[in-house]
Please model this.
Amino acid sequence: MAAYDVKPNEQVHPGKPVIVDRYTVGARINHWITAASLILLALSGLAMFHPSLFFLSRLFGGGQFTRFIHPWIGVLLFVSFLGLFLRFWKANLWRPEDGTWLARFRDVLSNHEDNVPEVGKYNAGQKLVFWSMSILIIILISSGVVIWQQYFAAYTTIGHQRIALLVHSIAAVAIIGVWIIHFYSAIWVRGTIPAMTRGRVTGGWAWRHHRKWLRELIAGKPNGRSGSNPAE
Amino acid sequence: MTNSWTDIKNTDLVVIMGGNAAEAHPCGFKWVTEAKANRGAKLIVVDPRFTRSASVSDVYAPIRQGTDIAFLLGLINYCIQNDKVQWDYLKAFTNATYVVKEGFTYQDGLFSGYNEAKRDYDKSSWDYDIGPDGFAVVDATLANPRCVWNLLKKHVAVYTPKMVERICGTPKDRFLKVAAMVAETSSPTKAMTSMYALGWTQHSKGSQNIRAMAMLQLVLGNIGIRGGGMNALRGHSNIQGLTDLGLMSNLLPGYLTLPTEKEVDLAAYMSTRGFKPLRPNQMSYWQNYRKFFVSFQKSMWGNAATPENGFAYDYLPKLDLPGYDLLRAFELMHQGKMNGYFCQGFNPLQAAPNKKKVIESLSKLKYLVIMDPLDTETGRFWENHGPYNDVDPSQIQTEVYQLPSTCFAEDDGSLVNSGRWLQWHWAGGTPPGEAKRDTWIMAQLYLRLKELYTKEGGAFADPIVKLNWPYADPGDPKAEELAQEINGRALARVTDTADPTKVLAEAGKLLPGFAALRDDGSTSCGCWIYSGCFNENGNNMARRDTTDPDETGAYSKWAFSWPANRRILYNRASADLTGKAWDPSRKVIEWDGTKWSGYDVPDILPTAKPDQVGPFIMNPEGVSRLFTRGMMRDGPFPAHYEPFESPIANPIAPKVRGNPAARVFEGDMAQFAESASQEFPYAATSYRLTEHFHFWTKHVITNAVMQPEFFVEISEQLAAEKGITKGGWVRVWSKRGSVVAKAMVTKRIRPLTCDGKTVHIVGIPLHWGFTGAAKKGFGPNMLTPFVGDANIETPEYKAFLVNIEPVAGPVA
Amino acid sequence: MFPPLPNPSTTDTAPRFSDKDLIRRSASTVPAPEQQLTEVAKLIDVSKCIGCKACQTACIGWNDTHPEIGLNAGVYENPADLTPDMFTLMRYSEWDNPETNELEWLIRKDGCMHCADPGCLKACPAPGAIVQYSNGIVDFVHENCIGCGYCIKGCPFNIPRISKVDHTAYKCTLCSDRVAVGQGPACAKACPTQAIVFGTKDEMKQHADGRIKDLKSRGYSNAGLYDPPGVGGTHVMYVLHHADQPELYSGLPKEPKISPLVEAWKGVTKYAGLTILGVAAGVGLLHHLVMGPNRVSETDEEHAEELTEGKNDGRV
Model:
């Protein structure tokens, strides 16, 4: 079986503690652009979603600019996320162990990871976040275009636009929910954030949360081979 | 109008035929909606197109353009056949009972006395039998086969519902439905009003179209009453004023006529204008002609008009031809016989038929002067505008002067509406740029001409040099001064003819009205019918009192209605021979045993006994004319003639082409498509749209937004036949020219079946040109034939032949 | 004749209604007004309308808009549709009445209906961009408008249009500025046949009754008033000859109401959405408080070191 989630430039640096490369600079920049877009979208979108949050439009210099910038940020998010998707989609393909992991999610929540199977670069939770994001962003960009009054109003009927509005708001709620999970997990699982800031995690973190990935990295390290690796 | 706009609210039945009041006169049309909403009045629309008027009608009847006379004579025939005649009215107030001379005939579409070479009639047989007492012979029993009524019966008998359908294309059942509704108004308690406009006048038999309806109204007893009448909807806000003031080449103000060159002196002129009563006791009001004429001469030449010189009779131009109408003027230019042209508030390049001929004519002028508030096409006839005005400026030597003038909202003055109301208006804005009032321009022009004539003399300088010019600032006469001059002044004390102790006006004072005019030179008056508009009571045209006792619609204290502030002409006919109103609910005036009085100014001598003096006081008979003697060039009765360009031959008189008495200039006949032409198979008509006013409002952005671009209207059937799509481009061409337009494909135009043949109609609105804010476009006068009405030469814009095809775009 | 309103006084007078009379304000709440103004209405009698477009030109004039000079598309509608510069539009529909075999040219003046339950206001996310006065007038306040176009989706009649110039929404104001000084709308003033009249809603209903009787007497047995209850009634009403088939009049909706999609979006979604997000955040917080962070232990690091140094295969 291919070490599907090991990238050739990911290195394990021996030492105390061991340092493991998790994300390249490109991936990190890509991530943070996506993250910023999503947050700005959430803020501007929420401003236009619920009257009690309209004050958020002030962050963007008022309602008019909020209305103007929101869809453009959406385009940015879409493009940016497309980058992430191309980088990460393989590593997020579903694996047999993911099912088991998910089945033992209660243990995950109670910090008893010893009871769950070893996972690769991403666990099932992360994969679900990834795929949810992917699907929701497609929904959001397509419904968003339909309701992008300034340029696209003429191409659809008002009936379609009403459906798009409803879909867009439900998808937006969903994606913010997914984001909350993503964001909380990053805080909850300590040692995660440096993966996206410095691009590195400690060996212990990798051992604890993505042991299979660590093994694969190490197994592939001596001669940097990326070919098949007799696992199990 | 015999009645007024406000009076239309009193009607029971509105017939809009030869017009499209809702579109062309939307503001006046409000009185139709009032009649409908408050009286339950019905509206009938007869038109080749289902117009916006038709959209609010109760009954719509389609008709082929140019066949109105057949339809109307069909209605008269229906009324006669079904005994729907207001007999008492007919016998007392029309010439139905008058006996016509032996020798008068009508056969094969021609009346007696026709001269084919001259295209004219010897009208001597078209008259009454005059008895030994000098009066016309009448037969109150209507038994005499030569009385007007029996001649009329015979004349209209051919116009059966079937024949109407055959000529007009109006389905028989639809015609009968209209006829039944119209005939109901023969009841003395029902009124029908006729609202018409250029849809009747712009034909080679336009005057007879109107006569036919007038005759129907007389048969039904609908003239002179509230809610009745013949109501011409005038096309410009002041076109009524134009005719009143005699701005026609053969008229003087107040419907006086210009002398002909055969009338060498005043006596000769007056000899044919004596209007001796044709029946005993009749007023024959034109007997006062000399008073009106002399007073007019005094207003023109003041002290230079003396009894000794026939009140400056020689100063008047004398006609060598029946008239120098628009068509003749352009014909003369075309022949190189007219070298200069003053064009004041007129855009003939768009308005005159056969644009190609108009351009050729204007190109032959030495100079052309334009006085207009707008940058008209005529002022730019020499400029190349691609297909819209395809001329070569280097080949045109005409010197063009454009003198910008003010528009109505920028100066004081009066406008005469269709209902003969002279309404004063006040300047609402300042003229832009160098724009000057027309009166200023004319005065400046006159003063310069006068100076030249004074200095250099000339063949006959007197009419110019001695013109009465009494204005405070000779270079800038004021509207009030002109209005007072038109109203008239006493030049010496004027007293009542019956009671010399009663002073009507002291010398120098404004005259109270035309009853004070004298023929001895003691009064001056610019236009007798307007006398009373600005008298010692003040400017009556500026009155804005909406008082209307019993809501009769007269509004007698609003503005001034000529003549004598009378709101309904012939209003004496609203009462029977005892002087009681035919319909008490429609009382206008009544006889109280000693005099006439009521809501309106009586249109009769107030002391004239009802059983003696007829209501139609302008006629020497005192009655109205179903048979019009020799007054019209083309016949004492209307008869159906096809338009000069017609999709079928005349079913009644197949050999007669067009109106046999209409003038056709040499060379123009060759430019008519033949009858039932294969080359030009479709019947076209031109018209106006409510969004625009003629060629003016295309200069206004808002109006241009409302109707931006030239189009033609055709039926779905014709579109399918020709492969024309809605909103696509089409080329429409006649024997004289070609236009390119957008196609409006509509259910509102439907093919008609006439004489067994399918006739497709092409509708062409006329508002576009090559100046202004709207998209450049063509006018229908690229296509229309150069021929006019037999009597007044109004061009035949409403019926001609074209062909049509889809094209790619306007550059054709 | 319906008595025309007298001309306004030339002296300054206080407006007849103001912000104190708001009963609804988009994306915000307003205190209940102290007094209830008499409801006004514009009645458009389609059977009296001659399609002259005087209303359109008056509208352009009064509101000082500048629609572009367009093209002819083979129809009488000009401009082709409502625009940010054309708040009202005559729509023309040619209909062969199958019952009478007569052609009818049905002409309707389209524009804002001033619904009692305005969908535009419901959809609007910008506080105070759309307001409703207690006299029934629904007005757009341009300085508050963000140009999102939600009002268009909210409107059951497809009326508002967003300007490409200032990116705010425009529609008929019922000439609120004229009504505020005792005048009727400019279109009603210009209408030559009184097909458009303006007054209190009760007066208009009464006037409509008379018109409907007249139409019934002329054989239009289904003549009636269009004051659709689905939007709580409107302050622009029509007299229709065929009130049973309003769609004939260039698609006037038969039973207009705010779209259920819009209701769902502005109703349950809005509240449920925020609730879900709040709950999600709360659960996270609670989890953190209860379970605490998931930390990497020393043992983990050691395992990693061992694995890295190849001491074992990392299996424990």
Notes: Chains A and B do not touch (no CB pair under 8 Å). Strands of chain A lie at 12-13, 19-21, 200-202. The longest helix of chain A spans residues 158-188. The first strand of chain A starts at residue 12 and ends at 13.
